[in-house]
């Protein structure tokens, strides 16, 4: 019997995506691969290894615990924690030898105290200016400059390593991206005049592909590393290869007479005699309930509609007749059919429920095993 659900991740595709993105960089910029959220649902440690093999110079995550997990997995590359780190998490981040982001004096003071309690430890800091994202970072140039000076003055315990910002809408609003770059420029000039070796970085995946002037010293690529389109359209238009396929199998095939229903709430009722297939994967695995009566899967080389409500553990597919599918047939929710003529992308599923491809791949739960390969050869 097949596995009830399986996410297959092609590490060779991740390597090629990194190489393709590196080829788009200007001015000798490097690439930092973002592997937060367990590698966007693909598996942080295997993805990190593949990204580094593809030429990434460093990695980034969102939390101190994510940094610890990478170190436990044997990853030794430079590692940036981009998110907020609480007082309680600071020792965890320091133990993981993670680089951290600062934007106020209090954080720097607390870090100095933590380092003072640990013999021989130091920390590398990136100072963040908020140029329009409106989340972390200071909007005040003077405060960012003061924090940078304080970090630099705390050497050797703390090293000023980077100056950064984050784009709010590089995927859809080039004018506002240009506005953010203009707001960032005075801080860039200030930092480079005072500390020429400090790395400047701003670009996410969308800006990497659309805004070459934002590449600076390195870019931070997340979604594109996994072969998803940062514009939520078509990965192939950017020569990106989706690295993840999500599969299940046909567990049952049964006749549905006109008037018979499938699933909770009778959200689908057969209009005429037909046949359905039950597939043992559901919203606890990451199939969004909004896809109820609202997507297609691939069996063999054909598309079939999902009918009825997505439940926790099962979905139902209308197959029309009993001779087109058999119990045990592979069902593809994300990925390609057997002959390659049909493909369902994360972007397609995202558009159907008015969300983004990030949420589709990150939402695949830990209940679904991940299997790693390199163009079909087990990794």
Key structural traits:
Lyase, Ornithine Decarboxylase, Chain A, domain 1, 4-stranded parallel β-sheet, 11 helices, 2 domains, elongated, 379 residues, TIM Barrel, alpha/beta
Write up this protein.
With 379 residues, the chain is an alpha/beta fold. The protein has 2 domains: 11-226, Alpha-Beta Barrel (TIM Barrel); 244-344, Lyase, Ornithine Decarboxylase, Chain A, domain 1 (Beta Barrel), CATH 2.40.37.10. Helix content is 28%, strand content 24%. It has 11 helices and 21 strands. The strands form 4 sheets. Strands 1, 10, 11, 14, 15, 16, 17, 18, 19, 20 and 21 form an 11-stranded mixed β-sheet that branches. It has a 4-stranded parallel β-sheet with strand order 4-3-2-9. Strands 5-6-7-8 form a 4-stranded parallel β-sheet. A hairpin with a 6-residue loop joins strand 18 (330-336) and strand 19. Helix 1 crosses helix 3 (44-53). The longest helix has 21 residues, at 174-194. The protein is elongated. The model has no long low-confidence stretch (mean pLDDT 97).
């Amino acid at each position: 019997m097949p596995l009830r659900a399986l996410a297959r991740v092609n590490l060779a595709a991740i390597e090629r995506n990194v190489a393709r993105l590196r080829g788009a960089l200007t001015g000798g910029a490097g690439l930092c691969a973002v592997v937060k959220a367990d590698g966007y649902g693909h598996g942080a440690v295997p993805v990190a290894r593949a990204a580094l093999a593809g030429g990434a110079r460093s990695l980034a995550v969102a939390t101190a615990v994510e940094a610890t997990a990478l170190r436990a997995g044997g990853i030794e590359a430079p590692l940036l924690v981009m998110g907020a780190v609480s007082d309680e998490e600071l020792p965890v981040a320091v133990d993981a030898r993670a680089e951290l982001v600062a934007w106020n004096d209090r954080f720097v003071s607390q870090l100095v105290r933590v380092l003072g309690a640990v013999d021989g430890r130091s920390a590398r800091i990136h100072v963040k200016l908020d140029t329009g994202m409106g989340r972390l970072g200071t909007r005040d140039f003077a405060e960012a400059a003061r924090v940078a000076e304080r970090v630099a003055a705390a050497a050797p315990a703390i090293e000023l390593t980077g100056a950064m910002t984050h784009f709010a809408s590089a995927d859809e609003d080039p004018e506002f991206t240009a506005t953010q770059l203009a707001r960032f420029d005075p801080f860039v000039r200030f930092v480079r005049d005072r500390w020429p070796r400090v790395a400047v970085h701003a670009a996410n995946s969308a800006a990497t592909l659309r805004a070459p002037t934002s590449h600076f010293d390195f870019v931070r690529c997340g979604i594109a590393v996994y072969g998803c389109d940062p514009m939520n359209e078509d990965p192939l238009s950017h020569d990106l290869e989706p690295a993840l396929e999500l599969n299940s199998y046909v567990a049952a095939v049964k006749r549905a007479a006109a008037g018979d229903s499938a699933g909770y709430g009778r959200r689908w009722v057969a209009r005429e005699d037909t046949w359905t297939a039950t597939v043992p994967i559901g919203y606890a695995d990451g199939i969004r309930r909004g896809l109820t009566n609202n997507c297609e899967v691939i069996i063999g080389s054909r598309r079939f509609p999902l009918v009825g409500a997505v439940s926790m553990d099962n979905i139902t597919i209308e197959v029309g007749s009993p001779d087109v599918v058999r119990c045990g047939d592979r069902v593809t929710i994300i990925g390609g059919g057997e002959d390659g003529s049909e493909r369902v992308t994360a972007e397609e599923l995202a558009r159907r429920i008015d969300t983004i491809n990030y949420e589709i791949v990150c939402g695949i739960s830990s209940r679904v095993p991940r299997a790693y390969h390199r163009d079909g050869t087990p990794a």
